[in-house]
Amino acid sequence: MRIISGQWKGRRLNPPKNITARPTTDFAKESLFNLLQNRIQIEGSNVLDLFAGTGSISLECASRGAQDVTAVELAHTQQNFIISASKQLGAKNLTVVRGDVFKFVPSCRTKFDLIFADPPYQLDKLPTLPDLIFSHEMLAEGGWFVLEHSANNSFQEHPHFVEERKYGNVHFSFFQ
After folding, report:
1. For the chain, give me the number of helices (H) and strands (E)?
2. Is the pLDDT of residue 141 over 80?
């Protein structure tokens, strides 16, 4: 896993072998951030990374100068890796929350400029995530919600859906 841009550009981080997360590939992550740079100013933004896994997206946003990044991850191994990587890089703008996304979202009162979610592709509740985010009004004015998913899901009928991009087996749906 590598940081693509920002203050830690090119830094490689090696998640432990026993990690159960499926990190977003470098190719898909680079493509995602190329799209995002035309839609949102990451520098100075408030970012929420749900199902943070290895923290790849969180650390990328922190490297690019996000004001505040919150990574929510339930698995202890993944959470520890994000904390360790954050310390190794000296990230002062990254907070790791160990918790269930479906409990965190209703209790969160913060608005975010960017919300990214990369749930397990087989998660039964995956199709409910856009409604969960929008029903709790978590996006700041002009903010974006990006959901990573497989080809088994389509969100084109969702009222906040903007577009879908595909990179191999990775699909990103964008909502506003």
Report:
1. 5, 7
2. yes
